[in-house]
Amino acid sequence: SVAEKAGYKHFMQKEIHEQPRTIGDTITGFLSSKDEDLYRMIKDTDKLYIIACGTSYHAALVGKFWIEKFARIPVEVDYASEYRYRDRIIDKKTVVMGISQSGETADTRFALLDAKNEGAKTLSLVNVVGSSLSRETDFVLYTYCGPEIGVAATKTFTAQLVALLLFALEAGLGRKTITKDDYEKIHNELLHIPSKVEEILKKDDEIKDLAHRYMNASDFLFLGRNINYPIALEGALKLKEISYIHAEGYPAGEMKHGPIALIDEKLPVVCVIPNDRYYEKMFSNIQEVKARKGKVISVATEGDKQIENVSDEVIYIPETLDPLYPILTVIPLQQLSYHIATLLGKDVDQPRNLAKTVTVE
Ligand code: G6P
Fold it and tell me: In the prediction, which pLDDT does 6 show?
């Protein structure tokens, strides 16, 4: 009903706009429910597998960067449906973490149950309290988003990122792999993220205009590097899920080994290029796209003027610390796919062939 959508046209739109609050709630909720036993276990964990499906899998890919950086635990990320049937190596210092909005995805649940039977310690990150996954794992972390109705995950993705970052920092503190100073620096900046997301959401009309200019493309390429490479994957997934436009996400450095062959004047290439330590590398990748006449849509940091020389369009996001950029860069990609899909007249809350929760293998 209209009332439940709080004045928005679609649940997806409402959920995109709820993110300043759900990010804030997840920070607060996480910090007020610290499980000492979990961090005691993580102290001598020597390998972490993270398994998930869909958008949750992309959160896992970002989480890997944070956990390896701050907690110095080697992390492998896998699709649950693949992990379940491979010859994984588990001992009692192995932790397997499942990420799932619903906590009911069959592939993720069964893969975790198998790992548990083989002697792994298990941990889940879920949005739905009391869900199967949360009951079946040894430890649970939550995102604090309330119900997500739109089939395409949005607010739960950014909340998963926040929870994974806080988990990595907490684990790092316990393992003495980060200093108290670094821990606090990131914590303090994290508190500014909700208002920075709010700033991006104010550009909704600008992004809608942009969507209008590209809505008739038949393919999109999304590029990013390092911690923003999974954001390129997520941008492509969002677009294909709800607009049915073919889209592919790629690590920008790998473009020369294949996707570069696709670039011509008809191909929009969405480039995630915040002002982080990979900026120069990403910039030269964009020049390679431009040289082949691709249409460059850049997501860049406020104040970056030189990016306009190599871009057809620039969506600016506020500045933040390098590790926090993914929480901001994904927002305009959600808005872009929402607007393209609605302009094309697609049902964004109920895309064809997709289900919110997949409880069959
Ligand atoms: C379905 C949904 C996706 C979601 C995926 C994983 O495919 O359409 O939006 O990302 O399942 O769901 P989960 O509840 O495990 O995060």
Answer: 86
For 148-202, how does the pLDDT look when each residue is reduced to its tens digit (9 = 90+)? 999 999 999 999 999 999 999 999 999 999 999 999 999 999 999 999 999 999 9
The ligand 1 atom nearest the CA atom of 53:
6
Task: Say yes or no: CB of residue 54 within 6 Å of ligand 1.
Answer: yes
Measuring from atom 4 of ligand 1, which residue has the nearest CA?
A: 54
H runs (alpha helix) in the chain = 11-17, 19-31, 36-43, 54-66, 80-83, 106-117, 132-136, 155-175, 180-190, 193-201, 204-214, 229-243, 279-291, 325-343
Tell me the residue length of the chain: 361
Q: What is the ipTM of this complex?
A: 0.98
Rounded distance between C-alpha atoms, residue 49 and residue 67, angstroms: 11
Beta strand 121-126 with 94-100 is parallel
Q: Measured between alpha carbons, how far is residue 312 from residues 201, 213, 267, 291, 298 in Å?
A: 21, 11, 12, 13, 8
For ligand 1, say whether the CB of 128 is within 6 Å of any of its atoms: no
Sign of CA dihedral 336, 24, 61, 325: positive
Q: Are 328 and 320 in contact (CB under 8 A)?
A: yes
Give catalytic residues, as residue numbers: 356
pTM: 0.97
Ligand 1 atom index nearest CA of 54: 10
105 lines ligand 1 (CB under 6 A): yes
Q: Check residue 1 and give its pLDDT.
A: 55
Cα separation, 65 vs 165, in Å, equals 9
Expressed in angstroms and rounded, the spacing between residue 263 Cα and the centre of ligand 1 is 31
